[in-house]
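Task 17 of the worksheet. Students: predict the tertiary structure of the chain below and write it out as structure tokens. Keep your answer in the requested format; marks are given for formatting as well as content.
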Amino acid sequence: MHTDEPRWLDAEEQQTWLAMVSMLVRFPAALDAQLQRDAGISHFEYQVLAGLSMSPDRTLRMSDLADFAEASLSRLSHTAKRLENKGWLTRTPDPADGRSTLAILTDAGWDKVVATAPGHVAEVRRLVIDPLTKTQAKQLREISHRVNDAINPHRTCPPILNP
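Model answer:
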């Protein structure tokens, strides 16, 4: 029988935790609101289109795109179908591996990313980059990596596809 007491959060730890929870709830909603208002798409849809826009030939295997977008293949497939219906991406079997599917950003999808990116980056700057000093931004990056490593030590953050 396990009798050890839980390691309860002290007052400062609880304040840190609650501040982070609040941010985790409010931040995605703020990004979605800006993108819906300005471009008529969700943040996840933008992430999918942006991932393709940064890839060689604007093409990625669906599994790699799912990794980049931090999504299950099922969620990505549903979103890809909506984006296909809008003419922003196409899917085709991978000629190098028939078991895989390639997602390809269309010219119309590229135009959507180009039109949407300035407003999105302005919102990211307003919400995250500009309120922080360079040192705080570096600390946030390091904290984010550490938390992500604690969640899944075998998975890295999405790579910058085309630096």
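Marker's comment: The beta strands are 59-61, 89-94, 97-105. The longest helix spans residues 11-39.
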